[in-house]
What we know:
Oligomer: single chain
Low-confidence stretches: 1-25
Number of domains: 2
Shape: globular
Mean pLDDT: 90
Radius of gyration: 21 Å
Distance between the termini: 42 Å
Strand content: 35-45%
Structural class: mainly beta
Bound molecules: copper (II) ion
Number of helices: 5
Number of strands: 25
Order of helices and strands: HEEEEEEHEEEEEEEHEEEEHEEEEEEEEH
CATH architecture of the largest domain: Sandwich
Amino acid sequence: MLVCAxxxxxxxxxxxxPAQSLATPEASPVGVEGLPASxxxxxxxxxxxxxxxxxxxxxxxxKYRSMFGPDQQLPVVKLVESDVPELLWIxxxxxxxxxxxxxxxxxxxxxxxxxxxxxxxxxYKSFGSRAAVxxxxxxxxxxxxxxxxxxxxxxxxxxxxxLSLVTQVLNLNLDKPDxxxxxxxxxxxxxxxxxxxxxxxxxxxxxxxxKTLDDKPGYYSMDPGEATPEEHGAGCGVxxxxxxxxxxxxxxxxxxxxxxxxxxxxxxxxxxxxxxLSLQFDTTVHYIAVHLHPFAESLExxxxxxxxxxxxxxxRATPGKIGIxxxxxxxxxxxxxxxxxxxxxxxxxxxxxxxxxVDSMAVMYMYLLDSTWKKPDLxxxxxxxxGARASND
Length: 393
Ligand SMILES: [Cu+2]
């Protein structure tokens, strides 16, 4: 089962491996008021807390392609060990492959992905927003293993809302290794009560490349009779799923996949992503993190209406190995404008020099300004939480 195609914007997905919960001692120590003991003070004098988590130990003894290595799900992650609600702001997220001791830095070639999720319903309940919010907060993978939002921007979260974490490893290079590794994950956040200036709220909305599994180019969730290349681009190319049976049907019954095979040679694929972005209002994008698989060269988001490039990301491959060393990301205080009545196209370029078929994905995780966000009524939330506690006593 590959959930990325079903969820569309969730991107890098879980696999059929059984999920196991993380033992409590693997989480970072807790300090006063249930806050993480680990913290630093930013240049503005505001304390940044670091919620650190270690996955279980993964033993790698053979090759595992992307999405097929050992994985683990931690279903409930809370940033603060307290049931008194307060407003927090997530300012960054980091995931590093380390040794079994949880500290020794290892080759990042074993990184498949580290996904942090939440329920959008919690966001709407807390903040009354109209934004089309994704259940995925972050995906980190080879090429970008640290996201730090530009100064003054962060993702708002009420402290009692649970997050969930999935980590996974892979091995594309070593035939018979005998290696133990873990994920070391760090979520950075600040408390609203500590801020000297109001924070600007970001939400995540992803755009994902698709291939059609039908016999001619297609547009997801759009009547092909209404699509024109001038307005809607070339449409998804015809392809095959990287995993048999990984099919996503749109409302017209057309079949697509977000995880496809790339034949040897060069491949360019365009996807109309307006529906995935589903903008409810004009906004600005302040951060973009890119997810691609090895042999990718670039990913570009185009505004088909204004004929401008929103963001172009180049990939630098790992020298001498199958892997991604580095991918460009966007970080901007000023932001890049996005319009709810414009059409957007995502164009991926792969150059498969392996001599055999390889798997691929193409996702941009976009962090957009939420102009409809409202500060929560924490007093009402505390009264509600207190009432729930009292009725449980
Ligand atoms: Cu992927």
